[in-house]
Amino acid sequence: MNKSIFINLPVADLDKSIAFYAALGFEQNPQFSDETAACMVWSDAIYVMLLTHAKWKTFTSRPIPPSTASEVMLALACADREAVDRLNDAAEQNGGTADINPKQELGFMYNRNLADPDGHVWEMFWMDPAAMQG
């Protein structure tokens, strides 16, 4: 198996979360989805597992943090600045929150942060490929 990442997230409303991530461009993999979990695919190597709170609790006894807490920020590279903006707009229109932190325009990099309906933080960013080479 190629190296890949499966990000597991506890969600309060599975159907709402599936709709949110689908609106951002994730595709649901029905092979790894049921009434307690949904596998949402970003790329060949990036998968987000949305888990009901009951399902989450079968993996760990640690408490689910409140939606106002941030333990981790997940960053996804985008093809261009417009994609960063589209994803933040889609988040705002589908139950999430756009621009939970100030936009960052660094010339060689542009990013905006959003939160899903459960408060999980995502950084959508674009980096100038020419700047990365030199």
From TrEMBL:
SUPFAM superfamilies: Glyoxalase/Bleomycin resistance protein/Dihydroxybiphenyl dioxygenase. Residues 3-127 form the VOC domain. InterPro entries: Glyas_Bleomycin-R_OHBP_Dase, Glyoxy/Ble-like_N, VOC_core. PROSITE patterns: VOC. PANTHER family: BLR2408 PROTEIN, BLR2520 PROTEIN. This is Glyoxalase-like domain protein. It comes from Pirellulimonas nuda.
